[in-house]
Specification:
mainly alpha
């Protein structure tokens, strides 16, 4: 591993306060990592992944239901139409969430 060199900077109280606020907004606690990233790249992006988390939640629910219906079909030889309609509705919800995610990501490119 390459040996790290020390870099020092003098800051006013206001500048230090602004840096700490930006760190907090980005969710970064390590001041050294934050300053290194800013000095090299000049910017940080913090993504709101709540839509992705919702998508994962819906996928888990749908997967669990699909597994239950498959088990039922294997045991009984058939499934209820109501169960299939429920799966289809869940699929529609997943696509709605996916569209939200894709729209949000497309806005990042602009």
């Amino acid at each position: 591993m390459e040996k790290r060199k020390r870099l020092e900077a003098r800051l006013t109280e206001q500048e230090l306060k602004l840096i700490k606020e930006k760190m907090k907004k980005c969710g970064i606690r390590n001041k050294s990592a934050f300053l290194r990233k800013m000095a090299i790249d000049g910017y940080l992006i913090r993504l709101d992944l709540s839509d992705v988390k919702e998508m994962i939640r819906l996928l888990r629910i749908n997967s669990n239901n699909l597994n239950q219906y498959a088990r039922k079909a294997n045991e009984c030889g058939s499934v209820y139409e109501k169960d299939i309609l429920e799966l289809q509705n869940q699929q529609k919800l997943i696509w709605v969430e996916m569209r939200k995610i894709l729209e949000n990501l497309s806005r990042l490119q602009k």
